[in-house]
Amino acid sequence: MQPFGLSFARALGAAALGVTLALPGLARAQQAPAAAANTFDAVKSRGQLVCGVNTGLAGFAQPDSQGVWRGFDVEYCRAVATAIFGDPNKVRYVPTTAQNRFTALQSGEVDVMARNTTWTLSRDTSLGLDFPAVNFYDGQGFMVKTALGVKSAKELEGATICVQPGTTTEQNLTDWARSNRIKFTPVVIERLEELVSAYVAGRCDAYTTDVSGLAATRSAQPKPADHLILPEVISKEPLALGVRQGDARFADVVRWTHFLLLSAEEFGITQANVDKLGNDPRPEVQRIIGKNGGLGPMLGLADDWAVKVVKAIGNYGEVFDRHLKPIGIQRGPNAQWNQGGLQFSPPFR
Amino acid sequence: MSQTTIDPRLMRAPPKRKLRLSWADERIRGVVWQVLVVGIVGTIVWWLWSNTVHNLEVRKIATGFGFLTREAGLPVAESVIEYSPTDTYLRALTVGLLNTLKVAVVGIVLSTILGTVIGIARLSRNWLVAKLSAIYVEVIRDLPLLLQLLFWYTILQSLPGPRQAMQPVPGVFLSNRGLKLPWLDWQDAHSLALLALLLGAVVTWFYRRQALAKRILDGQPRRIWPVALGAMGALPVLVWAALGAPWTADWPELRGFNFRGGVTVSPEFFALLLGLVLYTAGFIAEIVRAGILAVPQGQWEAAQALGLHPGQVLRQIVLPQALRVIIPPMTSQYLNITKNSSLAVAIGYQDIVSIANTTLNQTGQAIEGIAIIMLVYLTISLSISLFMNWYNARIALVER
């Protein structure tokens, strides 16, 4: 818990945005567009990727007991760093709250955002951001205490519901309540830790967020069985990686890193066997591992970028099993397209 | 001595100074410097502004205040005015502003009362009372406010749930959903009665002024309480009775998950108010103590020599003089309460900062959102300052 980080972080974020937008203008006619467009070169010359992650969400991004960031989203930071530098450790993690994440990205405080962020039309257009890839398909649900005896979200009439402000969750909740004619009292607290503790203390009857987040929170409770995730899923939440708009080259690297993890799973390329595929007869595998096709340099990366990424991170399924399976999240819509899921990689060609 | 003539040297006009276009001329120097400084500041402001606008455009971030009329879609737990998520951002922000004002006004009144009591208690000749007040001040002042807010909020959350709510008095429920009180089924008759009370107060005030003015002329004391009772007691009751004397209470009752009916003091509001009042009262107590100690001992002794009892000495002699020392630093404390209320976001009370933050997050227009927050605090703070300066000038010692 960092109680003081709260208002400062936001004030700093806003101040940083103000300053970064106002100041770099001595030679602004040439400079300003370049500043937005060259994240790739900026990252390369800095020697480090700055990645915006959650402040702490089990399974997705959380520092372990040694202070090392771990989680599904963190692996994406590591994968992009490996693609660029060949080294998964060349990342600096910046924890961002639901409220300061966009400011952090807009102002250049972070290069890429891997932080359970829902891709929506208005965010895509008016925030100056792009969402290169959906790394997790999610939906919003409710969690209640088992003792409450509620079995369906439709029974939540009159309930007090804990929700994080400034999220699509908050808007989905009001939409859902309106269309189901349900009246509720919101309790909105920005910091996830405070919000969850309000729910656990019984300040709210229900806690709502993405189902993956509910599962993560439930798994972190002393007695997970005391909490029930209700069956209704009230929204579509494609959680996407985010970069600044107008930065096509860097967006391509991020997007194809995600597709690489997917394709690797599709073609059975794993952390264990990626070194031994030199003689694999399948042409697509040969192109992925950089034996031929010259795909890496088209992205501005090394020929063997894919080998290094899969060697360091594993494929999508391995990453999923490592971080999300232990907290009780099923593949569901995140299965491969040929397994009935939505995760689909365009061809490596 | 009408014959006295004025010294002719005093009648003489000062020599006309010619404006010389030279660096040696003080006025020319002044003008040049001022033009230069204003020019530099203006250029910097213009440069920052145009760069910001340009860079926002390049980064394709939307600008302007057009979002204010869009549907907000954000839920608000407590509101002074009617609000639903279908309302606009402008209305949501107004709700936030009113919530800020609500906690600031109540906080200022309560912390002034509590602070004054503790400040006086610290000067008490009773050892226990004085020491307890001293301990209170030292402990409260030394802990960060945010920590205290989180502490009170956690305490309030650990109250029993609504189904096991405590019921200290029938109809009053205390649970982790807040304090539930029965409330009048509010009708026009009540609003009008309240208006009559206000009118009565104004009438009483004028009557008292006139009575005092007459007393100064003839020395006769005049009784004020009959008028006060009539204007502030009988008049509102008559208005209320004439309109049918509606008297139905809205009792809170447990239905489903929660209480329905009555009024709620939410844990968020209560924790924020408690934290602000207790914290600020510690500072106000010291200001009050300093003010009282600033009144010379001779004033106490003189008043006692006149035969006034200790309460009268404090009320009639010491406090009026102490106020002159107290008011200026008190203004700062009032400003602090208002600004500190923005810590509400930490415990989920939806003040202007909380709602503006959500707004700027949903619309992505950070600069506009922060500008709104700054404008709101600036306006509130300047209003408090203006009022307190006016009050300070009014009670200041009139020197002849």
From TrEMBL, chain A:
InterPro entries documented for this protein: Bact_solute-bind_prot3, Solute-binding_3/MltF_N
Pfam families for this protein: SBP_bac_3
Coiled-coil regions, chain positions: none
Keywords: Signal, Transport
Signal peptide span: 1-29
Domain of life where this protein originates: Bacteria
Biological process according to GO: amino acid transport
Domain spans labelled Solute-binding protein family 3/N-terminal: 48-277
Family statement: Belongs to the bacterial solute-binding protein 3 family.
PANTHER family: AMINO ACID ABC TRANSPORTER PERMEASE, AMINO-ACID ABC TRANSPORTER-BINDING PROTEIN YHDW-RELATED
Protein's name according to its UniProt entry: Amino acid ABC transporter substrate-binding protein
UniProtKB/TrEMBL annotation, chain B:
One GO BP: amino acid transport
GO cellular component terms, A-Z: ATP-binding cassette (ABC) transporter complex
Subcellular location: Cell inner membrane; Cell membrane
Residue stretches making up the ABC transmembrane type-1 domain: 97-388
Taxonomic source organism: Roseicella aquatilis
Annotated protein name in UniProt: Amino acid ABC transporter permease
Topology term for the membrane: Multi-pass membrane protein
Similarity comment text for this entry: Belongs to the binding-protein-dependent transport system permease family. HisMQ subfamily.
Membrane spanning stretches: 30-49, 103-123, 135-155, 189-207, 227-249, 269-288, 370-391
Source organism superkingdom: Bacteria
Keywords: Amino-acid transport, Cell membrane, Membrane, Transmembrane, Transmembrane helix, Transport
Record GO terms (molecular function): transmembrane transporter activity
